[in-house]
Amino acid sequence: MKIQILFLWFLLAFIGISSEAVSNVVHIHAREPWREGFWRKKIIWKPRWVKTWQTRKVYVAVWKRVWGPIELKEYVPLPKPPPGWIHHHK
Known about the structure:
Pfam families: DUF4816. InterPro entries: DUF4816 (IPR032134). This protein is an alpha+beta fold. The chain has one domain (about 1-80). It is built from two helices and two strands; from the N terminus they run H-E-E-H. The longest helix is centred in the first third of the chain and has 21 residues, at about 1-20. The radius of gyration is 30 Å and the shape is flat. The termini are far apart. The mean pLDDT is about 75.
């Protein structure tokens, strides 16, 4: 009986400590990283090799070239403003 009471006491203490740790939340604004550029998605078609198995007396691996869409994600940095524009905004 004493072991169960000790276990419950430790469990409640652990929950109390963990809930205090979670109360400190840091908010990061989503607009901050987008000032210097943006992410662009582009879909292109490329060949890739696919391994298939043919049934003969034993299974034999056969490689086939298959065309399929591939999504490319690239970061596009925004160009720097001309020197004349920076002078007027400071």
